[in-house]
Specification:
Endonuclease III, domain 1; Endonuclease Iii, domain 2; 2 domains; DNA-binding; single chain; mainly alpha
Length: 218
DNA sequence: ATCCCGAGGG
DNA sequence: CCCTCTGGAT
């Protein structure tokens, strides 16, 4: 109980800073609609957004909607998404996801979390991201950046994304799920980086359990 | 050598 | 819990 209270206070303090610093809710992925977003997010697994943005313009020019993407030759898709890595899985996933969206959901990206999770290539992170940006629904988006910064700061001491999601859900109100996710993502991506974190200029270093002045290693 | 807005399977 | 899938950037 005491732990939860302390965690909530820490979350409140960290979010007070980060929500002001990163007021926007968004992604660096380029997309024109829900369908393009969910495909782009599937492609973003273990890959930078910039790399995804290099392949999606041609991908959506050739196959602009779920029905057409569902009919795309697998080999052509593998070539189209090759540079994003995991290309065999990703090609199959986006083709099959497009087919299900076209056939089962009349070409519209489903709104419920359960329906999204059933799409191949869509896990909790992707489902929550789509719900946040497309359907304006709450959802904590635990990507590699959020996982790293929550571990380092002590906001959630877990290396398991699902556990971290549950911990954060217990200390962050639903209304803030999307904004908190993007603010944490931004801070981690630009300041609390994996390799050389910029602790000295980090706006929440006073709240971070890992930080001590002069310590650049973590 | 390590990491990138993961997911699926054992 | 673990492992595998994968190219590109640093």
């Amino acid at each position: 109980m005491q732990l939860i209270i302390q965690s909530k206070a820490l979350a409140d303090a960290i979010l007070a800073v980060l929500l002001t610093q990163w007021p926007g809710v968004g992604t660096d992925l380029q997309y024109k609609n829900c369908f393009e977003l969910i495909i782009a997010v599937i492609l973003s697994a273990q890959c930078t957004d910039e790399q995804v943005n290099k392949v999606t313009p041609a991908l959506f020019a050739n196959w602009p909607d779920p029905a057409s993407l569902a009919t795309a030759p697998l080999e052509a898709l593998e070539k189209a998404v090759y540079s994003t890595g995991f290309y065999k899985h990703k090609a199959q996933h986006i083709k099959e996801t497009a087919r299900i969206i076209a056939e089962t959901y009349s070409g519209r990206v489903p709104e419920t979390f359960e329906a999204l999770l059933e799409l191949p290539g869509v896990g909790r992170k992707t489902a929550h991201l789509v719900q946040s940006l497309c359907h304006n629904k709450p959802g904590l988006i635990i990507d590699t950046h959020v996982l790293r910064i929550t571990q380092r700061t002590g906001l959630a001491l877990s290396s398991n994304p699902y556990k971290t999601e549950k911990i954060l859900a217990s200390i962050i109100t639903e209304e803030l799920h999307a904004r908190a996710s993007f603010a944490l993502n931004r801070q981690a991506k630009h300041i609390c980086t994996a390799r050389k974190p910029q602790c000295e200029i980090c706006s929440i270093n006073a709240l971070c359990r890992t930080y001590s002045p002069g310590n650049f290693s973590q």
